[in-house]
Amino acid sequence: MSEALAGRSAIVTGAGDGIGRGVARRFAAEGARVLVAELNPETGERVAGELAEEFGADARFFPTDVTDRDQVEAMVAFCADLWGSVDVLVNNAWGAGTVGRVENKTDEQLARGFAMGYYGPFWAMRAAFPHMKRQGWGRVINMCSLNGVNAHMGTLEYNSAKEALRTLTRTAAREWAPTGVVVNAICPGAKSAAFHRMAAEHPEIEAAADRANPMGRLGDPETDIAPVAVFLASEGARYLTGNTLFVDGGSHVNGVAWTPDLDGEQ
Description:
Blueprint: E1 9-13, H1 18-29, E2 33-38, H2 41-55, E3 59-63, H3 69-83, E4 88-91, H4 107-135, E5 138-143, H5 146-150, H6 156-176, E6 181-188, H7 193-201, H8 204-212, H9 221-233, E7 244-247, H10 251-254
Parallel strand pairs: 1-2, 1-4, 2-3, 4-5, 5-6, 6-7
Helix pairs in contact: 1-2, 1-9, 3-4, 4-6
């Protein structure tokens, strides 16, 4: 590894598994100090241990429910107090979605989706920005989704929250551009933790998703998605802001013909 992130302090939410774990591992391999912000203490502690053991990283677990503003703000404060800086923030956590028709979605489902997919990242960005502005350097990476861009069926709360997050990304990028803080989004095409949970309930999804991808497979979180996050977190991305990078094997080019069978869902 090149140690592109040597000396940097990074927060990765939802780092206990899936894409978050892949990003945390790659950041650690590149020399970053990593705060594993995770709701599940078992997986959070395990990943922090992995980073220390395998990469010699200074890695800590911080229990975080991103739907709780106080916990999100405490997460950022902990990073700043521990390492003296908040250099990189990766808003990745998700776990709120269900599959169902628009007309059957409830207010509670939508509220939960927005709390996790939009407000959590917003609170984290708002808390991290003063630290980044003060040092004249910062990187915010928001994990968004092709589901929202293409309006995939069955996942309204996820689609809506992720597209709102992309708008937040662009707005913050524009406002924060003079400060040295850059803000970008990744729309990953990968077998994330959320994907595996959905596939467990709907087994036909995994094979259909692989077939729909131009490369014939969904990506691996650590080897396909995380390297792009490393670039966005590095000095090399200093002039790149407000962008959405589709790290999806080409799925965004012509869209994805995603038509799950929702006829049985009432």
